[in-house]
Design goal:
Helix content is about 25%, strand content about 20%. By secondary structure, it is an alpha+beta fold. The chain has one domain: Cytidine Deaminase, domain 2. Strands 2-1-3-4-5 form a 5-stranded mixed β-sheet. It is globular and about 40 Å long. The relative contact order is 0.16. Bound molecules: 2'-deoxyuridine and zinc ion. The site of zinc ion has 7 residues, from α2 and α3. Zinc ion (ZN) binds next to α2 and α3. Keywords: Hydrolase, Metal-binding, Zinc.
């Protein structure tokens, strides 16, 4: 587990580009969470996806009166990126309002992530900005992917 300095504190990030990048990504996932449309679960989630050319695509969960049509924050962020021509992903940060637990992506989102490779990073965060970093491979071992169809 690692501790991310609070917003506005750039000191720890100085001289450490990667760290600054991750802090920013986590902050963006919290921003995205503000747009969460979750009147049924009342569980807000935001995601910020970093592409290999350093673009960020954000997403939030979007629920529906027909419950099963709801879409997760992570999948919305990935679909936004892919639909704009970006599918090389470096990392995704996920934020919820949980204080005591790291938000963990659902099985469907893990499979959706896996479509775009297993060697990229997923930052599971808590409200206080502490995070757990896992690769897609760690989240979904022994997975089924595009190569299995060729
Ligand atoms: O990682 C997660 C976990 C849950 N949700 C959403 C789905 C649903 O809208 C709500 C409750 O499960 O949270 C996400 O967007 N991402
Ligand atoms: Zn999901």
């Amino acid at each position: 587990m690692s501790l991310v300095p609070p917003a506005g504190s750039d000191r720890l990030a100085e001289g450490c580009g990667d760290m600054a990048e991750i802090i920013e990504l986590i902050q963006k996932s919290h921003e995205a969470k503000k747009h969460s449309y979750s009147p049924y679960s009342k569980f807000r989630v935001g995601a910020a996806l970093l592409t290999s050319d350093n673009r960020v695509f954000t997403g939030c969960n979007v629920e529906n009166a027909c419950y099963n049509l709801g879409v997760c924050a992570e999948r919305n962020a990935m679909a936004k990126a892919v639909s704009e021509g970006y599918k090389d992903f470096k990392a995704i940060a996920i934020a919820s309002d949980m204080k005591d637990e790291f938000i963990s992506p659902c099985g469907g989102c893990r499979q959706f992530m896996r479509e775009f490779g297993v060697k990229w990073d997923v930052y599971l965060t808590k409200l206080d900005n502490t995070y757990q970093k896992m690769t897609v491979e760690e989240l979904l071992p022994v997975s089924f992917g595009p190569a299995n169809l060729s």
